[in-house]
Amino acid sequence: MIDPIVLPRLPRARGSLGNVARVFLKLGTTAFGGPAAHIAMMEDEIVGRRGWLTREEFLDYLGATNLIPGPNSTELAIHVGHSQAGWLGLIVAGACFILPAALIVTAIAAAYVRYDNVPAVASVLYGIKPVVIAVVFQALLRLGHTALKSRWLYLLTAVATLASFAGINELWILFGSAVAGAASIRSEFVQRRAIAIVPFGVGVGAASGVAGFGLWPLFAVFLKIGSVLFGSGYVLLAFLRTDLVERLHWLTEQQLLDAVAVGQVTPGPVFTTATFIGYVLGGSLGAVVATLGIFLPAFVFVALSGLVLPRIRHSPIARAVLDGVNVASLALMAVVSVQLTRAAVVDVATLVIATVSAVCLLKWRVNSAWLVVGGATISLLLSAAR
Prior knowledge:
Elements: H1 17-30, H2 35-49, H3 55-65, H4 72-115, H5 125-147, H6 151-165, H7 170-185, H8 215-228, H9 233-247, H10 253-265, H11 273-312, H12 316-344, H13 348-363, H14 368-385
């Protein structure tokens, strides 16, 4: 194993509570493209521009979010808030990252309920998606430079990438990389404990048949989902369908697909799908209750894991486990970026937008938020010209 060159750390800035709020309000308003893009924009803002964390610390927090249920990018925001402004920062960072998306989704849900249709928002994404590709590419270069510290980690990254392309569940990839990291330090047999995940059908509403709608059952459904869900927005779709369509019969299939679509095309966490569903079922209060239910576990899990994380780097085995999780996280992010590229770069115009955005980011370090605004503006201009 090749030891990395360790450079002395320079004093770093620490964010005030106000700065934490401003940064995550901005990210919550401009972070389109799903968790991979959110993470990339956070890395640019928090590590590259403000120096609140080193890349190694950022990767540690990213690895930690992959070990607990819930929305990864939101949990990363919560971790950063806690690192900069303590327990109050933990709450403020998460709330500010969630709030803009929740308000936007609520407005769309209100229009949906009134007009029985989703407003045409997808056209704006034509110019935003190529910018997202460039942002993710920049983050992969930066984080990979920090995470890939040895030939062994390069190999582990390659295996994790191939496993993801082969369709292996991302939770197994992360778990396998963690075990492989530990095995690289200690060659003896690694005891493994089975991971028990709460079944979908436990707990809420009537035992069978159609359950009557209520705010407490709504809160309980989303609290359960937020407490056990690992994986992407597609996994979220499976959970929601099992509970809300098949078991409780609160939504139709089409309403569920509309809800997930809105969560995908708006900025901020995809989990604001819950906000849309809550509004459709229970109005403004339903939107608040569903949002609180699905995001509350993330705050609790981050608070608990944050107490352990600072001690991890002092243990060689724990450090190796986290290194394995970190490179697996980057491998998953790389695979997602390939899938995003296929959907985003669809013609010459989007290829030009992606290329120019990458040059602006890598050479001139233009703020990614401005590039997102620029991409949206180009999309509107092109749409008007057609």
